[in-house]
Inverse folding.
């Protein structure tokens, strides 16, 4: 093997070190040793890993591309929250509307020679740490209601369900229901009924999950709404929990596909096969 392949093999753990045990799983679930793949099969598998990682198709983005979009959505939610914080909580005299804020930013840019790529901390003091990397350009976009629209497709109902639900004491009371004969109804069935979910959907109770209110508010987000139309509670839920959990989930899949890609490269190198990355 080449020096490149040697270094990659050493980077894998003891178990993953045995090239003879590396397998490729097809879409129908069959497993084939990577060493047994012919050149065409190796190329097909390699192209598939590249597509899963980097595909730019907006309807089927690769996980790397999807993570970029998720992080951009996090930035947008955070910027909209900053806009509301400045206008309603930061107590700067004379700032009541988006127009006031646009004029305020313009004046400070001229006075201090600032660029749109500079951080908002060049203008505003005492901001929470989460706001300190927002650029002036993004805050201007929020003022003009021109941030990219939120893409609900990034957060599928399947992912929301996977987070689970943990009811508050008040929600337990609100979701307590009885049959016509006075028998206690399973709260999972009550939740499905009230949210018009498929009765066959599996709802998990999980102490790390969403509250019922959070769960309901996420399911009600549809299509591509503007961040300016979302409630502050939903924006905070996206920023502080949901988008972070989704980012972690995507990191797992990025690591999985990256490892498969590297293994295929090592196998191809050992067999003297050149893989095409186009």
């Amino acid at each position: 093997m080449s020096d490149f392949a040697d270094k990659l093999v050493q980077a894998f753990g003891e178990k993953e070190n045995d090239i003879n045990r590396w397998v490729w799983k097809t879409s129908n679930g069959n497993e084939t040793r990577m060493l047994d793949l012919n050149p065409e099969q190796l190329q097909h598998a390699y192209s598939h890993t590249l597509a899963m990682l980097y595909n730019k198709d907006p309807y089927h983005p690769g996980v790397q591309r999807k993570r970029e979009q998720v992080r951009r959505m996090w930035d947008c939610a955070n910027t909209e929250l900053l806009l509301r914080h400045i206008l309603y909580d930061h107590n700067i005299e004379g700032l009541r509307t988006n127009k006031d804020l646009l004029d305020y930013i313009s004046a400070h840019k001229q006075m201090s020679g600032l660029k749109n790529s500079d951080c908002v901390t060049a203008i505003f003091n005492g901001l929470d740490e989460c706001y300190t990397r927002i650029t002036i350009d993004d805050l201007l976009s929020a003022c003009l209601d021109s941030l990219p629209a939120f893409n609900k497709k990034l957060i599928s109902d399947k992912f929301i369900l996977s987070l689970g639900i943990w009811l508050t004491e008040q929600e337990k009371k609100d979701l307590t229901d009885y049959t016509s004969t006075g028998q206690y109804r399973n709260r999972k069935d009550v939740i499905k009924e009230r949210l018009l979910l498929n009765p066959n959907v599996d709802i998990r109770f999980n102490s790390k999950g969403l509250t019922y209110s959070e769960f309901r508010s996420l399911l009600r987000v549809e299509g591509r709404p503007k961040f300016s139309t979302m409630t502050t509670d939903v924006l905070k839920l996206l920023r502080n929990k949901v988008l972070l959990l989704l980012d972690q989930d995507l990191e797992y899949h990025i690591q999985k596909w990256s490892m498969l890609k590297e293994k295929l490269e090592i196998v191809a190198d050992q067999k003297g096969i050149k893989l095409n990355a186009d």
